[in-house]
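hi! just following up on the protien thing from before. the input was this:
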Amino acid sequence: MTKSMKTILALFTASLISCFLFSSLSFGQEIPKPGEIIDKSNYKKYAHLIPEELYPGFENGWGGFWKPISLKIVPTKPASQPKRFLAFSEKNRGKYALDKDGFIIGGYDYEGLPFPGVRPDDKDFATKFMWNFTYRYMRDDWIGPMTAFSKRKGEPITFNISDEIIVEFVNRMYDDPKPNMKDPIGLQYAEWIRYSVPVNVRNFQMLIYRYLDPRKSDDTYLYLPTLRRVLRGEAGQRSTPIQGQNQALDDFQGFDGRIQDFTYKYIREQKLLGVADSKLNVGLVRKQTAQAGGVLFFDDDNWEVRDVYVIDIIPKNATYPQSRKRIYIDKENPTIYHAAVWDRAGNPWKFWSFEFAKRPCADGDTASSIEHNFGLDVQFGYGQTTTMDYKLNGHGFKYNDIMPSAMSKRGE
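and the predicted 3d structure came back as:
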């Protein structure tokens, strides 16, 4: 680790300790009112609603990656999953259990949540809730661009743009075939990413398969435009940061690892500030980034007081680069607002905050869709703001659209 990296980490850790000690004093458990602004002048008053990793953001934008942040409070609104999906889930209440290795037993049919209504007094609560997380309703399919603005310490902002297609094969609620789409290899979902900017990575592609068989590892395929060939990626690809990101595949949306590869520890439930209904769009983020004066854009609007569970995620594989991840996940609709990571030595490494929007579905339903995130690698001094502009459902994608052979066609 270089001297500058050590300095960033030391400052970050010292700031966390200082803020933690300050927040442990008697400020009470006050709740901010809608319209109130939380910033450097008063954030310690509401420290019980904010992950410790965000404290330095109020002081100095984590050393100048962002301007000192502020949070505008809005009224808390319901953020449940689609009614149609909840009806599917209700038939599963009390129907399934976990075996000694944490796998679902009882014949789960991938329709609705496997453990609706699970509560913290259940001895297997954390693992069951994470199975609910992985099988929550997110989409039938989606397509759209993702733009990531990045900044290294002392360097100007750079950005990359990629297009993404995701096709769900189970828990489909609106597009035929539903609720499940049959395919020859037994997929839960497939995710395709193609880069268009900057020019040196144009047409580089990734294809990720997640299988329904919990004992079958994910597959990753890479399209290399210089060779015009599709290659199978290494199994460790999911824990390696992808091109132009400080996130690995397992870090997407806070956590996208295979449930069976980790153990889970329930820490507590609490109230927390998060964004469940963002009003951002790609054009606004680009405009604000251009006007920010060399620092990354931070979304200060639409922060609600949410009820969350705090859960620690520990890898079973001792060689996994993260020793622990802590997530703050909505109780009503299992989406992750904040996630913090420690390296194998137990040192603070990375954190992210995620924002969601309520995208319209059929029958007046809405689905929580990931819209925006920001995060910092505190050891390598690398900050990032990412925004998405997905079109949810209705695209009619089939298995053939996300086969490795389709990557070559798109590359050409």
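The longest strand covers residues 262-274.
Residues 66 and 298 are 7 Å apart (CA to CA).
cheers
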